[in-house]
Specification:
Elements: E1 2-6, H1 7-11, H2 17-23, H3 26-42, E2 49-54, E3 66-69, E4 72-76, H4 82-92, E5 99-102, H5 106-114, E6 118-120, H6 122-129, H7 132-138, H8 142-145, H9 152-168
Parallel strand pairs: 1-2, 1-5, 2-4, 5-6
Antiparallel strand pairs: 3-4
Helix pairs in contact: 2-3, 4-5
């Protein structure tokens, strides 16, 4: 599996990172996304590569178009759009069936589907990043590790239902 991510599309769907964007903290939002993706990727076995496409430049006056941050391949569109770079990436890939494109942009999703790529909306992938299963594997979800409280009366009721059913058979 090769992930292709429309970065700003995803940033606006992740709680905390969207707030960075609304405050104008572009660098904080970008860094936060990279950290969350790297943390999530450490727990994934099926993801071979992760390509993250950002609109614009990495920083003001920075001409970097491509960089690497751990397991992430980062792309900066400069005067083009990230959507354009994502479409080019899909077009140039020898096996688009291995690509999982993360974007809620309708044009990107249609282009990916046309080339037989798999896809997630940004909302769906944000849910995957923060799913209870992913967090419990990391040991950070105390809610899923604890047993739910059970009402004594409810337990008695269900015991009677099942005990009666057993006696009838």
């Amino acid at each position: 599996m090769i992930l292709v991510i429309d970065a700003f599309n995803l940033i606006y769907k992740i709680e905390g990172l969207d707030e960075c964007m609304y405050r104008g903290d572009l660098t904080g939002a970008m860094q936060g996304l990279r950290q969350q993706l790297k943390s999530w990727l450490q727990k994934q076995k099926k993801v071979k590569e992760c390509h993250v496409f950002f609109d614009g430049k990495r920083k003001n006056a920075d001409e970097t178009r491509r960089s690497q941050d751990g397991s992430l391949q980062l792309y900066y569109s400069h005067d083009l759009s990230a959507d354009h770079l994502i479409k080019e990436f899909i077009n140039s890939n020898a096996r688009p069936g291995e690509l999982w494109v993360v974007s809620s942009d309708k044009q990107i999703r249609l282009h990916a589907k046309k080339h037989r790529c798999h896809g997630y909306t940004a909302e769906e992938f944000a849910g995957v990043l923060h799913s209870p299963a992913a967090r419990s594997r990391a040991g950070s979800d105390a809610e899923t590790d604890s047993k739910p409280e059970q009402d004594h009366a409810e337990i008695e009721y269900w015991n009677q239902v099942f005990l009666k059913r057993g006696k009838q058979n």
